[in-house]
Prior knowledge:
Blueprint: H1 10-20, E1 27-32, E2 41-46, E3 49-55, H2 68-79, E4 88-92, E5 102-106, H3 123-141, H4 159-174, H5 180-191, E6 200-202, E7 211-213, E8 220-223, E9 230-232, H6 234-246, H7 261-264, H8 269-280, H9 287-311, H10 317-324, H11 327-338
Antiparallel strand pairs: 1-2, 2-3, 3-5, 4-5, 6-9, 7-8
Helix pairs in contact: 3-8, 4-9, 5-9, 5-11, 6-9, 9-10, 9-11
Amino acid sequence: MEPDILPFDIEALAGELHEIVPGFSGLHVVEKFNTGQSNPTYRVKADSGVYVLRAKPPGKLLKSAHQVDREYRVMKALGEQGVPVPKMLGLAGEDSSIGRMYFVMELVEGRIFWDPDLSKLDNQERAGIYDAMNETLARLHMVDPEAAGLGDFGRPGNYFARQISRWRDQYIASKTDEIEAMNRLMSWLNDNVAEDDKVAVVHGDYRLDNMIFAVKEPKVLALIDWELSTLGNPLADLSYQCMQWRLPHDSGFRGLGGLDRKALGIPTEEEYVAKYVERTGAKIDNWTFYLAFSFFRLASILQGVYKRSLDGNASNPERAQVMGKSVPMMAEMAVKIIDGKS
């Protein structure tokens, strides 16, 4: 076993994993992945195989954030419904050997694409990757929450009203500067809440780099990072992903804005939405609200990430600083959408 360079007792963890993970034996090393902003994630190498451990971050946390037990529960349930997710192997509580809650899942080997322009692929495979993302999103939203044992995975009532309230409160709790565009956006959303009569399991952070693809074909093997999942309106996931078409490519978000999507073989936003509608039968009548809401929600999340970096609790401090400083840009883009300028 390598020297303990992690902020917890490796020997104690080894004994605990032997108890909670079926067949686990012979821990060799635990290595922290350098990606991700919220819940620190580790590669665990042992005689019995290679695993992934995902934990709450250390330090004082915002209320209702970092509930890794919810991630474990939703992936376990959806895996039984045919949604591509890693296999869940074990869950440890707050009194675990590392002093915080964590879960263990299988390691899924495959490709992760960090840049949505998919520059190393040809046009045919780019189109296939985007279609696979679309099909996986549709498959997720077609799952019956009750049948999956997730009927109580979210609160009743208007999803958007709840989310606006939640992220407004978390934004205010982590605010570091006054951003006028953010204030205007919050006010507009509060006055223009869309009617909400659709309920599905929503991922909450549905984007390209939260998917692991097969090595030799455009197939989603696993959808990961379920921290923000809940029961809600499926169009929130769709509009959240479609932000990628609008965010500038040269920003820290590596968006598709400014790129010639047709030349790359990547569908337009309209084509992507139409394919989703074809697969699910969804009706979309308030796209401006859905997009504005998604920009607001992401901006609020990034503000929280930025505040944690200032407090010394970010999983990836350097990246957190870059993301946090993008909050004004996100708010301004949303204001242009509600003003009909984008």
